[in-house]
Amino acid sequence: MVSMVTVFINLWKWQPHPYETLLSREFYFATWQLSWLIHGNAELPKSTAVPNWTPCPSTCGAGIQFRERFCNYPGTTNISRNCHGETVEHKVCHLTDCPVDGMWGHWGEWGECLAGRQIRSRQCDGPSPQHGGKECYTDDNTRDVETRTCYAITTPPPRVLEPPTIYGNASTMSGGNVSLLCLTTIAGVSVKWYYKENESLPLHVVQPEGTTDLLITGANIQNIGNYTCVITDNGLSSKAHQEVTMRESAAKIISLTSKPTHITDGATVQLTCEALGYPEPIIRWGYKDTFGNPYVPPPVKYTDGGKTILIASYQSILYGGTWTCNAVNKLGADHRDITI
């Protein structure tokens, strides 16, 4: 009986079949149990050896490879239950990259309108050719450059005011006069002179109304320097600069006055000495009494850089005599007397 069971089992090997039924599977399992009880060392079912992978179905790009095994390894003595592990395996295969043909990308912006024509271009980058793919197709209707007729709209350049031009003699002696003329080719503009960059004109400097002239009468250390002519029109402006200089000259007194001219005791007397020269002269005062005796002047108040003497409550016995104005610079000296 044992031999018959063993022979029966060896004749059957488990292998899935389309018409296999649940009942037949249970029969095999029961038969295996019986064989195990009889022999005590029956072998478990085994699968076949691992077969080779199927060829990669794709000549380029990605593909899927398979391999399949069956639960029918030779020498298996039991046909009782499924073998362990998966029956079918698969994996991704990749032989080589597939060629990618180039395609035209988007058109660029139209260029500047020149001679009635505009040009725009595009690149073969949508995508670019790869892995031996073809370049973008080009013929009379498909190309990388396109042109069209255009009409240029000219925009006038922004309006600017050309700087004015200054004419005239900008160098003078101390006490001399200067005349400058600011000219522009633009009609109807406003012309105004400034001292330095934007300061009001100093004393003895004027711009006559309705003119573009600048007049300096009696040039001195206070009114020489840089002058600016500014033209303006509808919110636009432009300017030019001119440096007025003074030539060196020796000190020279041009006036020595007394106020009042008729002096009485108790009055306030003002003596003023005006001198020209460049560098600017230094003023020094001297005094002699009515008898011609020189001595230090009595206490008085000096103003205006020493050019003016103020004598308060004049007394002839103290201040009467001769007053001398001395003007000195590096090029020379001058003096003038006044008797009160």
UniProtKB/TrEMBL annotation:
<keyword id="KW-0677">Repeat</keyword>
<dbReference type="InterPro" id="IPR052065">
    <property type="entry name" value="Compl_asym_regulator"/>
</dbReference>
<dbReference type="Pfam" id="PF00090">
    <property type="entry name" value="TSP_1"/>
</dbReference>
<dbReference type="Pfam" id="PF13927">
    <property type="entry name" value="Ig_3"/>
</dbReference>
<feature type="domain" description="Ig-like">
    <location>
        <begin position="251"/>
        <end position="340"/>
    </location>
</feature>
<protein>
    <recommendedName>
        <fullName>Ig-like domain-containing protein</fullName>
    </recommendedName>
</protein>
<dbReference type="InterPro" id="IPR036383">
    <property type="entry name" value="TSP1_rpt_sf"/>
</dbReference>
<dbReference type="InterPro" id="IPR000884">
    <property type="entry name" value="TSP1_rpt"/>
</dbReference>
<feature type="domain" description="Ig-like">
    <location>
        <begin position="158"/>
        <end position="245"/>
    </location>
</feature>
<dbReference type="InterPro" id="IPR013783">
    <property type="entry name" value="Ig-like_fold"/>
</dbReference>
<dbReference type="InterPro" id="IPR003598">
    <property type="entry name" value="Ig_sub2"/>
</dbReference>
<dbReference type="InterPro" id="IPR007110">
    <property type="entry name" value="Ig-like_dom"/>
</dbReference>
<keyword id="KW-1015">Disulfide bond</keyword>
<dbReference type="InterPro" id="IPR036179">
    <property type="entry name" value="Ig-like_dom_sf"/>
</dbReference>
